[in-house]
Structures are given as C-alpha cells and as structure tokens.
Amino acid sequence: MARYAGPKNRLSRREGVDLFGKGNKLRRADVKPGQHGAKMSRRQSGYGIQLREKQKVKRMYGVMEKQFFNYFVAANRIKGSTGEALVQTLERRLDNVVYRMGWAPTRAMARQVVSHGHVKVNAQRVNIPSFRVKVGDEVTILEKMSRLKEESVTPTWLDRHATIGKVLRLPERSDVLEPISEQLIVEFYSK
Questions:
Q1: Are 170 and 88 in contact (CB under 8 A)?
Q2: If you write DSSP's letter for every residue of 159-171 in order, what string do you get?
Q3: For the structural domain made of 8-82+182-189, what CATH number should be given?
Q4: Where are the domains of the chain?
C-alpha cells in the first residue's frame, strides 16, 4: 500500500501545526515550505481553507486521498453528523488505536508495528493498519513489543492493561483532542 515517505517537517510547516505528534517544535513554523514560502502571504479563499483542513487531517492519520474520500463517502451514508462519523471512522483504524493505547509514540510507528504483525485483535494476528476495530474487540500487542509502551493517557473509549487493550465504546468527537474542524472537510467534499 502506498504512503507518504517524504519530509514530514515540510508537511507540518505547510499546515502550520505538528501533524505527526512527535512533540518537537516546528522549525520555521511561520514560513511556508518552498522557494517562495517566505514571500507568499496572501489571504486564503474559502476553498483554500477547506482544502488545507482536509489535507491536514489526511496527513495526520497517514491516509492517502482515495482512501480518505472513501471514508467520507461511508461517513456520509451514516445517519447523523457526517463530520463526526468521519472522525470516528479515522479513530477506529487499528494503527490509530495502537497509537492511542500508548504502545507507539507516533501514528507512523504504530502503522509499522501493525504491518509487521505485532498486534492481535481478538487473538487473531492482524497486519492491516486500516483494519477497523469494533466495540468489544480485544487488542493485544506482542510481549516483545511491550517495551515500546509510552506512559500516556488512554482515551475513555479504550481500556488498557499492560499489553492488552479493549474497545469499550465508539469514539466521540469530544475524545479527539487534535485541532480538527470536520465541518470544513464536509463542506469541501459537498461542492
């Protein structure tokens, strides 16, 4: 499967926030990347704001364009708020669950842990990062990978005990602390 393998700091500078959760300060955060980045200071149009928000969320979760659009189409079919359903779908990805459990410091590392087969869901080895967990699923990381465990706060929709975690309920919008404006993404795709 394809994924972005280029300079991550460049993407974070483009969006103006730390997309990859490494916690390090963005170098030259106020200067956009590229040859003319320092000179460009135009007011963004409504479309430009919506596009930047979509790109930010897409890059934050490490999802390519077609897959992100398919998530939007699926979220649009669900009754209720499309934006909340989209965020809920992204949060339920297995690589994100491993990241939220604190077993990996970044989503990219969580993706690698999953794709190398170090994670089991309901006692079955799963190596697909986009696998969607359901309520009641038991996620286990192999004992040899338990040293990766970060001391982090587990969200309320997940329960973690050492190398075993459980999905207690579906994530809600209030569980996501990242600065995401899902309404702008819905408006972008609704044109």
A1: yes
A2: EEETTEEEE-S--
A3: 1.10.1050.10
A4: 8-82+182-189, 90-173
User: 127 and 117 in contact (C-beta within 8 Å)?
Assistant: yes
For 47-59, the pLDDT digits (tens) are 988 998 999 999 8
Burial class (CB in 10 A: 0-12, 13-18, 19+), 60: buried
Single-letter code of the amino acid located at 138: E
pLDDT value at residue 68: 95
| Average pLDDT in the chain | 85
- Give the tens place of pLDDT for each residue, 88-121: 999 999 999 999 998 888 888 899 999 999 999 9
Q: Are 102 and 155 in contact (CB under 8 A)?
A: no
- pTM for this one? 0.84
Q: How large is the average pLDDT for residues 64-82?
A: 94
Write the CATH number of the domain with boundaries 90-173: 3.10.290.10
DSSP states of 88-125: HHHHTBHHHHHHHHTSSSSHHHHHHHHHTT-EEETTEE
- Write out the E strands in the chain: 119-121, 124-125, 138-141, 158-161, 164-167
Q: List the 164-167 sheet strands across, edge first.
A: 124-125, 119-121, 138-141, 164-167, 158-161
CA dist list (Å): 92 to 12, 95, 103, 129, 185: 23, 9, 16, 10, 18
